[in-house]
Design goal:
alpha+beta; 4 strands
Amino acid sequence: MQYRRRWTIRRSLAVLALGLGAGVLISWTPSWVYGLTGGQWAFNRAVSWAVPREASLAQLEAVVGPGRPVLTPPWLRQTVLREPSLYPDGWRVGDTSVSYSFPDKSVWYFQIRDGRLVNYDPSVMAGQPQEHFTILR
């Protein structure tokens, strides 16, 4: 009788553990992984999957948290102006930038105009290299 009770308890614990494991796997989204690790790979996946073109800054922040408002680096502005075919939204007075930094010292810059992402393409984000300084087009 006691053997049967132990077996029932063990089986119940095993089912509970499997249920918890399944719950963790279901909630294992790139956004969650980024929040846990701070890694660029998870950031790229989370943003490219959940943030559409012309999204608002609030949508980006809902996925990966707030970035750091920064003065746009001159090299970034020059690149946007020099490559209109790659950056069709161009650059306007009043555009701002938000950056996200990663443990490997790489940095993402997002160009913001009137509270929306410009020159942002989710497919480019998904295909970016995972190191060095990068620019979104």
